[in-house]
Amino acid sequence: MTFVGLDRVREIRVHEPQRIVEEAAARRTRPLTGPLMVVAADHPARGALAVGDAPMAMADRTDLLARLVTALDRPGVDGVLGTPDIIEDLLLLGALDDKVVIGSMNRGGLAGAAFELDDRFTAYDAATIAAMRFNGGKMLTRVAFDDPGSVRTLEACAHAIDELVDLGLMAMVEPFVSRRIEGRVLNDLSPEAVIRSIAVATGLGKSSRYTWLKLPVVHDMERVMRATTLPALLLGGDPSGSPDDTYADWAKALELPGVQGLVVGRTLLYPADDDVATAVDVAAGLVHADLKES
């Protein structure tokens, strides 16, 4: 497919919207096999635009797409996770040939909203993911024992897993134990909480045969990974601390049984030095040993 500029993308969206479906049908796909280095870009649809102390860092769509195209063009980057708006822009930009594509499904739990933990499915559905020839769907699965919205989210995630199973597509489940502290939803990143979230997530749906987990890198990851036999991808989270320390933590966790790679967004797309290519290359080298050796 031919790379076109953003002005052309805007023209297509006005005059030829069917081109999105045509590009999806013509795209060269690839199977879902690990290890995987996936770039994540589904935060904006949940109203989460901040990176570190920059509250509107992800608000400029032109800038975000430029960073994504740069990342996807680097050796060892296997694919992308995103919502329909971003995935469709990338399709029209010709950036998804021979890439794994994971559609983000539940974005209704808007950051900071009173209903944040009632995380409705407002983006991709399983049927569209299959029709677009993507590899699977991702769902955020936050469990707050003091918020009734969590049970509705759990039920919706179970139904989505069922639908993906029927289509033979990966269900990427991102579980957390969460709580409200002074009005903010915060995820408990203790090993015990992550293990409990895994126990809940792996029991969702009528079958776990296509379920993969998206897990944070926390203390005592060896014990965390003993909580499941399912394949897991490690998430990057909001960048904080030294990049070298972050990369070292990822490298150690990537050696654990069951870990199949990384799904990282803001840490790589908005590094402190703003050098997206170098940040992505370091992460891809951790996932793919042949890149480190070359």
In words, what does this structure look like?
- The chain has 294 residues and is α/β, with parallel strands linked by helices.
- The protein has helices spanning 6-15, 19-26, 61-72, 84-92, 126-131, 149-167, 191-202, 221-225, 243-254, 266-269, 276-287, 289-293, and strands spanning 36-41, 79-82, 100-104, 136-143, 170-181, 184-187, 211-216, 232-235, 259-264.
- An eight-stranded parallel barrel has the order 1-2-3-4-5-7-8-9, surrounded by six helices.
- β4, α6 (149-167) and β5 form a beta-alpha-beta unit.
- It is globular and about 50 Å long.
C-alpha end-to-end distance: 29 Å
CATH homology superfamily: Aldolase class I
What do the pLDDT scores average to?
95
User: What is the chain-wise order of helices and strands?
Assistant: HHEHEHEHEHEEHEHEHEHHH
What form results from the Cα inertia axes?
globular
Count of helical stretches: 12
Strand order in the sheet with the most strands:
1-2-3-4-5-7-8-9
CATH level 3 topology: TIM Barrel
For the secondary structure, the number of strands is 9
Secondary structure topology:
Blueprint lengths: L5 H10 L3 H8 L9 E6 L19 H12 L6 E4 L1 H9 L7 E5 L21 H6 L4 E8 L5 H19 L2 E12 L2 E4 L3 H12 L8 E6 L4 H5 L6 E4 L7 H12 L4 E6 L1 H4 L6 H12 L1 H5 L1
Parallel strand pairs: 1-2, 1-9, 2-3, 3-4, 4-5, 5-7, 7-8, 8-9
Antiparallel strand pairs: 5-6
